Amino acid sequence: MTNNDYLALKVPFSEKDQVKKLFAHWDAGKKRWYATNRKYYYKFRNWIPGEIVVTDFIGIIQGVVTCWKCGRQTHVSSPTITALNTIDIEDGGTITDFSGFDVYSFPWETASVIMPQQFVEYGRRTRSIKRVFSKTEGHAYLGNVCEHCTSLQGNFFLYDEPDSPFLYESTTPLVIERVRLGNGDYVLPFNSIDSRISPNTDILSRVSFVESNMVIADY
Ligand SMILES: [Zn+2]
What we know:
Pfam families: DUF5710. This is DUF5710 domain-containing protein. InterPro entries: DUF5710. Residues 8-49 form the DUF5710 domain. The protein is of the alpha+beta class and 219 residues long. It has two domains: 1-49, no CATH class; 50-216, no CATH class. It is built from five helices and 14 strands. The protein has helices at 16-21, 95-99, 108-114, 117-126, 155-159; strands spanning 7-8, 25-27, 32-35, 52-54, 57-66, 73-82, 86-88, 103-105, 129-134, 139-145, 152-153, 174-181, 186-188, 207-216. The strands form four sheets. It has a five-stranded mixed beta sheet with strand order 8-6-5-12-14. Strands 1-3-2 form a three-stranded antiparallel beta sheet. A three-stranded antiparallel beta sheet has the order 7-4-13. The longest helix has 10 residues, at 117-126. It starts with 6 loop residues before the first strand and ends with a strand. It binds zinc ion (ZN). Residues 67, 69-70, 72, 74, 146, 148-149, 151 line the site of zinc ion.
């Protein structure tokens, strides 16, 4: 077991003997049960509050777009999980089996609901993102803004247009910063992830990785 082979379980007191039989461990400091072997996480699915377990790190993927407003090149970023570091709790597969993508990116606004706050705050400190009003969507959300003119680079533009750097038709290079999970593996809810597309899509082949100095410990 590595340091990160730790998955917190949600176990009602009346079910403690069931998880004990499956070799769950008791964390006396945090007063909760946890699983220690990723290979067997699926056995605990009744006590895992979500469908996708993210192991080791949460990524921040970065690409470049041309700002629609000022016409200059600006970096855009997005919280990301990959087929290299996810476990589908139903059958032990990865995010590729689940979504069709080997790299799956979330809008920052979605991340602010489903990912550790410490991670989102780190993103706000280090990336060109802000909570701004979107005329297209009619409400404010946390999104990418141009580094030069601060115009919102909208979510529709980044996630739904074929020429977005984060989608499969693009051929531009991408960088993923690996922000380490320092307090065990992390669970994401099913409904935050789109259902499978076909055929499976390869984005990892144009990704290079960099290690972050940041470690997320508060979640
Ligand atoms: Zn601009």
